[in-house]
Amino acid sequence: MVIVDDYSRWSWVKFLKSKDDSYDVFNKFCIQVQSEKELKILKVRSDHGGEFENEPFEIFCEKHGIIHEFSSPRTPQQNGVVERKNRSLQEMARTMIHENNLAKHFWAEAVNTTCYVQNMIYIRPLLKKTTYELFKGKKPNIFYFHQFGCTCYILNNKVYLKKFDAKVQKGVFLSYSERSKAYRLYNSETLCVEESMHVKFDDKDPGDKTPEQNENFAGSEESDDYSKPDQISEVNDTSEAVTAPDTPEAATIPDVPLLEASEEDHNNSQQVIQSRNSFKYKSSHPEDQIIGNKESPRRTRSHFRPEESALGVHDRTYKS
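Request: output the structure for the sequence above.
Response:
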């Protein structure tokens, strides 16, 4: 049974075992809403269904001063607010179930999630406010929303665990709890629906690829470039050698075939690289720049201090 507030478009979904339970559910709903909002229900509009047009319903409306209106027979357009809401809930729930390949017996959880999300995000065009803001008086907070049907990992804090037992159980996210700050989850190991707040969600789509996979499976042209680093370095080196300052000897060199020129440029580039990096591997040092005897053992700066100054420091520390 779908109930919609005509002003804010806030919706409620009540699941019934049979249509005979409509009166009992509606009775409890009216008491709950009137006590929550401290307002009185004035009108109720429905179709001519047997679950609404009966004697207990009429007695209840007369007792509480509620006007019960009906739409014309075979004219659901007159009750279009609820009819459109019912259609949108059904279409959205069906899409969610088939998108995530869930079993059809989860349809109630899908409809409940759909109604919960629509109350949070739908905006009334004339008032330019969300349904939640009109009904609750404050802006909604949707930071805790997650993808319906996504994989989740539930902390197992109900069963005694041994040292190397798994602490989490794999499950599927279904809905949000109505009476507590928790999520409704289907536990794949226990095969039951439970409510828990200690859960981690994996909201990624199954077909998405990570950036690392995209780089590894790049096009053939990029892979060919990465497979030839030596050739790239050689080209760069030759370009540096060619762009070096001109010398008189280079101006007098006669023309030679292209192959020989490329070999000479390659040799010159290797000489340039060796000359640039030669200082890193040079182990010898000019002997005229060595201070003292080069065969003496290595000493630190403390060995060069005068012995008297060292004794004086020891004397002062001893007296103090």
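Residues 209-254, 256-261, 276-281 have pLDDT under 50 and may be disordered.
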